[in-house]
Write a structure and sequence with these properties.
438 residues; alpha/beta; 15 strands; 17% strand
Length: 438
């Protein structure tokens, strides 16, 4: 062995890449990250763009699938979600029908691995970084938890994105089915036809992240270590720590290769050596800025909520927050280093903040007065109104006034949101309110 809604329209790109430079037409605005999140039923119409001398082809949905052609067969990099796989396969096989020799998975999130069965042929090798085994086991272990969380985050029906309880598991038996048959630690390089594929361990969004460097094309497949947005160093659906310094080190390694095109697994490529350098340098520096500001605040004795409010990117490092958010990443850095205990002795015990808030609501005279206060602040501070209604509804779950104010606050936050993950959770909150109002 060689060691939720449904998705946005699919786009096939043919990229011509050479050492002398790269030519890429302007990508449609809807394919830029944030706008390319799931928005409509069905895969939509595919639009093919072709470029002379194309060696790399990209099918775009919620997760991209890449086809790299060589004189001895083809290599697929990432395979998107199961619901995208057949469409991506059809788009890319229309461009080239050579045998699929290898499938390289930049990491083992389901929107990268879902199409492996569609693409795998007799003799096809599947390549992953060695941490894939434990990372897939972790996802299997929490499959029921993630089925609920993913549905909320991506505004999909429960179960639409996979997962669910595993009632037949024996205690401690959480092993995921094997996926890759080629696993490597630091680097795995192979030659196919006229191209070299250098698979490099690049931990960032996941511990099993790898990047693929094709030196003859000056092309680097970066997986999810780059978005056209600040990254999710903590994702709201739940995740182990994603150390900021892993991102920084991995991006430094990419910059040292001096690629002329960088192809992320979500969104559109970064084209041109100087554009790549500027874009990834800004991205790396933004991550490092948030990390360092958080660490300084921790050492100065600031609490996590103060830092979530105060740490802001300077204008020259503003990479946008359409997917990840600086405040969530601040908390991710803080708790990644320090864990859950905040220094308050009350936190040591199983009495939840919600229980204490409920007692305060009772002291205030019940849900009604608290809902009235929430109504008074909803226009100026909908996030505070949301907190107040959480407390009120802990005492009276169907209090009409509290539910009405909560809906108002959620709608205001949703109207202001420019972040796809935040919007997903706000939609989920609205659905719960509307269910309680029936």
């Amino acid at each position: 062995m060689r060691s939720l809604r449904a998705l946005a329209p699919v786009l096939a790109l043919s990229l011509a890449v050479g050492t002398a430079g790269v030519t890429l037409a302007q990508a449609p605005a809807q394919e830029r990250l944030g706008a390319s999140q799931p928005t409509a039923a069905g895969a939509g119409q595919a639009k093919a763009l072709s470029f002379a001398g194309g060696r790399i082809f990209q099918a775009t949905g919620f997760g991209n699938t890449f086809l790299v052609t060589t004189k001895a067969g083809d290599v697929v990099i990432d395979t998107s979600l199961p619901m995208n796989a057949q469409r991506h396969h059809a788009l890319l096989r229309a461009e080239d029908k050579a045998p699929i020799k290898d499938i390289i998975l930049t990491h083992s999130h389901g929107d990268h691995t879902g199409g492996v069965p569609v693409w795998k042929e007799a003799g096809t090798h599947v390549i992953g970084q060695a941490n894939e085994v434990e990372f897939r086991n972790y996802q299997e272990r929490l499959a029921g938890f993630f089925a609920v969380r993913n549905a909320a985050q991506y505004n999909a029906p429960p179960g639409a994105l996979g997962g669910g309880a595993r009632p037949n598991l024996n205690p401690g038996d959480y092993a995921a089915p094997p996926l890759a048959d080629v696993l490597f630690d630091k680097e795995y390089r192979f030659k196919l036809g006229d191209l070299t594929f250098d698979c490099l361990a690049m931990p960032g969004e996941t511990p099993d992240m790898l990047n693929v460097w094709v030196p003859e094309l000056k092309a680097l497949f970066i997986g999810d270590n780059y978005y056209a947005s600040f990254p999710n160093m903590y994702t709201l659906r739940g995740t182990p720590p994603r150390p900021a310094l892993n991102y920084v080190e991995s991006i430094d390694k990419v910059l040292a290769l001096k690629p002329e095109i960088v192809l992320p697994s979500h969104g559109v490529p970064i084209v041109g050596a100087e554009n790549v350098r500027k874009t990834l340098t800004q991205y790396r520096d933004a991550i490092l800025y948030v990390h360092d500001a958080t660490v300084r605040g921790m050492n100065a004795g600031q609490d996590v909520y103060s830092l979530m409010r105060s740490v802001k990117l300077p204008p020259e490092l503003d990479v946008g927050e359409g997917y990840g958010a600086v405040s969530w990443s601040v908390r991710g850095v803080y708790e990644g280093y320090a864990g859950w205990f905040d220094g308050d002795p009350a936190t040591m015990y199983a009495t939840s903040p919600g229980e204490a808030a409920a007692e305060l609501v009772r002291i205030a005279g019940g849900a009604g007065p608290v809902a009235a206060r929430a109504q008074a602040v909803a226009a100026s501070d909908p996030a505070l109104a949301l907190r107040l209604t959480s407390a009120a509804l802990a005492v009276e779950p169907r209090n009409a006034a509290a539910l009405a104010v909560r809906k108002t606050a959620l709608e205001a936050l949703l109207k202001a949101s420019k972040n796809s993950n935040e919007s997903g959770w706000l939609h989920a909150g609205l659905a719960r309110v509307e269910a309680a109002q029936k």
